[in-house]
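Lab notes, practical 5.
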Amino acid sequence: MRLGLDWRTALGADWVCTDGRTPGNVLRIEPGSRFTYRYDGTAVRDLTTAWGALPAVPVILISSKDLSPEAYDSAWRLGLSLERAGKRSTIRALPAVGDVVDLEGVMIPSGLRSVPAFAALSQGGKYKLEDAAEVGALLSLGQGGPFRADIIISDPAMGSGMNAAFDALRNQLQTAAPDSVAPFTDWRRRALDPLARPPAPKQIGLAHAFGRPVIVVASNAGAQAAGLFSASWNRVAVAAVMSVEAADQPAHGSSLVSLKYLGGKPGSFDVLAHADWSASFDIGAVAADGRLPGTLVLDVAAAPSAARTPPVVSIFMNDILLGAKQMDANGTRERITAPIPRYSLLARNTLRLAFVRQLASDRCRETPEAYPVSVLPSSHMLLKKAASSDDFTGMVSRYATGAHVMVPASFLGDAVNTLPRVIRMAATTGVSPCQARFTAVSGGATEKPGGPFLALELPFKDARSKVKLEGGRLVMRADTDKAILDVTGLNNVGVVEIVEVGGDRGIVYRSVGAEAPAMDKPMLLARGDVAVFGSNGLLAEINAADPSGHGVTVEESEDSRPWLLGQGYWWTLPLLAIALLIALMVFASRMRRRERDRSPA
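Output from the prediction step:
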């Protein structure tokens, strides 16, 4: 959708260009503005289309608040995949007897009010479900009811719960409305039974229920679904039901990565005054084998325009200017090379090119026209070897080969409240939904991570922590024993820090106070090793080992040195000097010999 506005204010003669930014001319788009749309759900016939049709806030439906480790694992992986796709999911459990639902605005057809279950739901307002038949009636309302689901994690408990609710509703229909039993049975067979039947292992399917298309994922197919719906493979899912054994990100061993591999789409577009081209990528997609983005090589082309001032292209990484160039604009390829400092990298990165042209209109007698520019497919990124730093950016590079996500077993019994926390933390720290492994830790003893890890609310006895929590008290120390922060009375606050356990480095999350923060807003972590955040997002981030930022300065100074010094080959400089001296001595000796041969005897 594109909103266009042509607003002109005449301030002078038609042949004189004047400033149209007149005080008093204000166009305001109110925050309450919204775009409402509908589509035919029955026209969605494959998984690719269903994934693309998901709303901005999809609902992931789980069988209950108490999940099996397998179903919990699949749920957080799907939620993380949605986060990477720019969608923030909501976790809901299948309604059960005793749950309170909001029936405000729900209209029950008069023909159904003779059935006790539907009559109870017609009361409106907050209502507590009293029996399984009312649960079945609530699920049967479809788009007319308050319940919806976009992705279903299907486990045996999901099938048994739905079947029990629909069977109870059918029994009520036999008593209150016998004539409706046959239509209900036929409708249930077509619309509801596919959801109640457990899918085959590692199966992902499309169903139409609750008035919309629904993606049904087997409880053991979370990693496969996350890979299938990634940018690399989501166009392959052109079937309604698929069994997926593997769907991983293609591995690369090269130090050169095309921007197309990172999700950028080369192409041409017209620029009148200003236009942007952008591409987003996870650093884990390129940070394998200890390598990080080092240099950006961009090939662009621009057509000449009527303006005498050539266009300017600027390169930004996460809103940090990397470089800029005044283009020749002759329609041929122009190469721009820009180093990428480590401080500009995040777990989720956005590369943006800004093209700016000077308008030309021949004293307002001509209408300014747009001229094309192109981002060429040969644009690429060069990777360089980099030692993994002990900060959040360094942990992202460690996670590229896989992370161990660890939660206490108690999280499984409160899945609706704990799953969003796991999803948000995995997205914030750069965990891959395909490469990670998951463990629900039982009992008081915590197993060794066995590699880079992300742990939530787990006590590691041998971990060396800079943060100490006691109820609502937060004590933070640097490398010395002196506390740099000691406060009491906090609630709805969380702390993440980098710790080392048994030789493995990882990120540990802990809540401060009785309640965990909601984590409704996205967070980006960079060069710190301790971060504090609340429901409104990131509150503070520091590097306790280097609070002054000295390491970043030294790092960038090393990157700006000559190549031999930057790569640690400083010892070759004396050898080169000696070799040059010897070459000069040999040259001088030959020249003296030649002069002697020319001189008369």
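Observations recorded by the TA: The chain has four domains: 42-243, 258-385, 400-542, 569-601. The mean pLDDT is 85.
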